[in-house]
Amino acid sequence: MKLIKLAVATATTIVFTSSALAGPVLDKVKEKGFVQCGVSQGLAGFSNPDEKGNWTGLDVDFCRATAAAIFGDAKKVKYSPLSAKERFTALQSGEIDMLSRNTTWTQSRDTSLGLNFAGVTYYDGQGFMVRKDLGVTSALELDGASVCTNQGTTTELNMADFFRKNGMSYEPVVFEKADEVVAAYDSGRCDTYTTDMSGLAAQRGKLAKPNDHMVLPETISKEPLGPAVAHGDDQMFDIVKWVINATIEAEEMGLTSKNIKKAKKSSDPSVLRFIGQEGSLGDNLGLSADWAYNVIKEVGNYGEIFERNITPLELPRGVNNLWSNGGILYAAPLR
After folding, report:
1. Mean pLDDT across the stretch 162-190?
2. For the purposes of burial, counting CB atoms within 10 Å of the CB of 199, is it exposed (0-12), middle (13-18) or buried (19 or more)?
3. pTM, two decimal places
4. What is the pLDDT of residue 20?
5. Quick count: other Cβ atoms within 10 Å of Cβ 237?
6. Whose CA is closest to 103, among 64, 155, 53?
7. Cα–Cα distance for residue pair 229/28, rounded to 1 Å
8. Residue 281: in which H helix or E strand, if any?
9. Quick check: 174 and 219 in contact, CB under 8 A?
10. What SS3 state is found at 295?
């Protein structure tokens, strides 16, 4: 009787494992030969095209890292620039394979919009920027202010909560595109501009006279930003989630794009598992054994990604540092 129960349990496990590896999005991605990745319409440090249409940024690098995991080639990505209003519909409809667009992970988005957040790639918070000549030194002095921001974002909701909580009035001035918000603020259509702190740092450089503006000290929200995939496809969800973990764990282990090739000579079992010379971490995802090796070789570890994209904005790593360096980044083990 015990043997029969064991056989049934084993068969059930086999069926479940087989089902878990059946991923329509991955099949579609492999068939067309690239990952279609939804990004912003232009935000320095996160996803921004140059004059030749080449995309760079932290969000872009996680698109590239996913392509490296699937194809061994980070170049096998195409980008769909999306407004905040368009981004979720594009993912729900299958227009894109993943969304990597400075998007905040919230309970309502995770449960009601038909998408799954694969992890956090940047911990942020919302703030306010004002002209220095406004004479304001705190967000608590913004009673009656006109506020420029993006439509269809958590920024709108946080702004409403902040003013209501503090018994202040305000006039919202909202636009669909980030560049429209920046232009409106720069032209004087509003007293203050609110978005994520990283966004304020990135957009400040687009103002006619950046040094005439300052970011107020208050951070009014938590904004965990990260990639999302369509709900219901566990395989693509697993792939993007473990790509994120791989970049963090690589930094923890001291593996970089410059030294990853030497890891093949390592005697450390955790390193050998990571690069695919031991274990079956690739099989578990439906990928090649060296998927994590390819991610680091092609794109780099989290520290490299941050330094390449965020450090030029003069933003400190802060909480986005490894747990061992005073931050909160902590990767689940690849084993």
Report:
1. 95
2. buried
3. 0.89
4. 39
5. 22
6. 155
7. 14
8. helix 281-285
9. no
10. helix
Residues in the chain, overall count: 335
Is pLDDT of 9 > 80? Answer: no
Do the strands 145-150 and 192-196 form a parallel or antiparallel pair, or are they unpaired? parallel
Q: Is pLDDT above 70 for 2? A: no
DSSP annotation of 333: P
Residue ranges of E strands in 89-144: 98-99, 115-117, 122-124, 126-131
What is the C-alpha separation between 263 and 112, in angstroms, rounded? 43
At 3 the pLDDT is 42
Contact 236, 23 (CB under 8 A): yes
| Residue with token string 């690239």 | 34
Lowest mean pLDDT segment, chosen from 9-23, 58-72, 74-88, 251-265: 9-23
Three-state secondary structure of 235-268: HHHHHHHHHHHHHHHHHHHCCCCCCHHHHHHCCC
Cβ(295)–Cβ(68) under 8 Å? yes
Non-local CB neighbours of 36 within 8 Å, separated by 6+ positions: 29, 77, 78, 80, 95, 96, 97, 98
The model's pLDDT over 120-130, given as tens digits with 9 standing for 90+, comes to 999 999 999 99
What's the rounded mean pLDDT across residues 266-286? 95
**CB-CB neighbours of 133 under 10 Å:** 8
Asked whether the predicted pLDDT for residue 48 surpasses 60, the reply is yes
* pLDDT of 59 over the 50 cut: yes
Tokens coding 262: 């030497």
In which residue are the tokens 């995802």 written? 285
If you search the block for the tokens 């799954």, which residue do you land on? Answer: 116
Over range 189-217, report the average pLDDT.
95
- For residue 49, the surrounding DSSP H or E stretch is strand 48-49
325 Cα distance to chain centroid: 21
Residue 327 and residue 310: Cα distance in Å, rounded?
16
User: Which has the minimum average pLDDT: 17-26, 34-43, 138-147, 312-321?
Assistant: 17-26
Q: Map out the domains of the chain with their CATH numbers.
A: 14-123+225-317 (3.40.190.10), 126-221 (3.40.190.10)
- Read off the tokens for 85: 């209003």
Q: DSSP 3-state assignment of 71?
A: helix
End-to-end alpha carbon distance in the chain: 34
Contact 301, 66 (CB under 8 A): no
